[in-house]
Amino acid sequence: MKKNILFFITLLFSLSMFSSSLCACFTVNEGFIFTVDTKKASKKHNNTLEFTIQTSPYALPWDHYNYHIDCNNDGIYEEVNQTKAYTCKYKNAGVYSIRIGGSYPAFLFKDASKYLTGSVKNPPEYKDSSKLISIDHWGTQKWSTMEYGFANCSNLVGMANDLPNLSQVYTMQSLFSGATQFNAPLNDWNMSTVTNISTMFEKASSFNQVLNAWDVSSVTDMSGLFREAKLFNRPLNLWDVRKVKTMFGLFAYAETFNQDINDWNTSAVTKMGALFRDATEFNQPLNRWDVSSVTDMFIMFHSATHFNQALNHWDISSVTNMRAMFKNTKMFNQSLGEWKLFPSQDMIDFIEGSNISSKNYSSTLKGWATNSHVLPKNVSFKVDAFYTKETQEYRDILTSAPNHWTIQDKGIEIK
What total number of domains does the chain contain? Predict the structure, then answer.
C-alpha cells in the first residue's frame, strides 16, 4: 500500500498586536499569488516549504499581520485571520499556486534569511526558497519592506505583470541576492521611497534588465548592489545618486559591466572600497566624479584588468585608505602626480601589478614629492616600471627621512 507523502508549505507569520475579521472570499485583484514547485528541492527536503512573512529583525513598528491563506488558489481560503504559522499540506509533490490575502506587509524565506542575517554560521541547503518559481500577482497590499524577500530563490524566473505597491518600502537589501535564474523586467517599479538597495542583485548571475528609469534619489546605500551579477551590463547614467553615502563593492566581480557613469553626482559618497574590484571589463571615464568626501578607496580597482582612465582631477584629501587601490589593474597606465597626498593615508601595495609606463611613473613620483606639504610615512609598494634619471631626487624625497617610503621598482631608465 502506498503511503501518502505529505508536502508541507508552512507560512510563518508573527504575532500581531491587531486583529480583524475578514471574509473568506476575495475579488480577482485581491491577494498576493505565487507558484511553488515542491520537486525543486532535494528528495530529502521536498516534503516541506516554509514561507515567512517577516517581522523581526526587519518589521517596522506599525507592521501587523492578519492574513488568509488559499493553499491551492481555488477560491477557498483554508484559514482566515491568521497571526501565527499555518501549514498547507499536499498529498503529492508538484506545482501549486498559493494565494495570500489580508494583511501581509513583509515576507522572506526562513531558511535563506537565517544564513543571510548571520543567525547561523554555515549556509543551509535552501530547501524552501529553491521551490519558488514565479510571482504571479502582487495585489494591492502595501509592502513595508522587501529586505531578503526572494534571497536565494534560485529557481525564480517569473514575475507578475502588475506592480507591487512600494510606497512604504525603505529597504530592498538582498531582495534578489542569490536568485541565480532571475531575469525579469523591473524598470517600472516605484523606487522613490527606497533608501537601501545594498546587495539587491548580489549573485543574481543571470540578471541583465534595464533599470535606468528607477528613481533612486532617496537611496543612501548601494553597497554590493551588483556584486557578482556577472551578466549585468545596462546603462545607469540617468540615476540620481546624490544622496548615496556608500558604494562599497557596488560593481565588485560584475565581470561584464562597462557603462558610462561619469556624470554621477558622488559628492556625498564616503565609501568606495572595492567598488570595481574584479570588474574585469570596466573601462569608462570617472574623472568628473567628486570624491572629496570619500575616506575609503581600499582595493577600489583591484584586478579591474581593463581599467585605464585618467583620474588626475580627483580630490583625495579625505581618503585615509588607498591600500592596494590599483593592485593587479594590469592595463592601468596613468599619471597620478596631481594628487596631493596627506599623512593619514595608507598606500600599502597601492599600484603593484599595474602597467604604468616610465613616463607616468616618473610624473607621479615628482608630483607626489612636490605637491604634498606633509607626506604619509612608511608607504610600501612594488611597481613594475623604470623612472627617469631626472626623477631620482624626487624619489629620494619619498624614500628618505622623515618619509621612509619603501619602493621596489626597476630603477633608473637607461636610454
Answer: 1
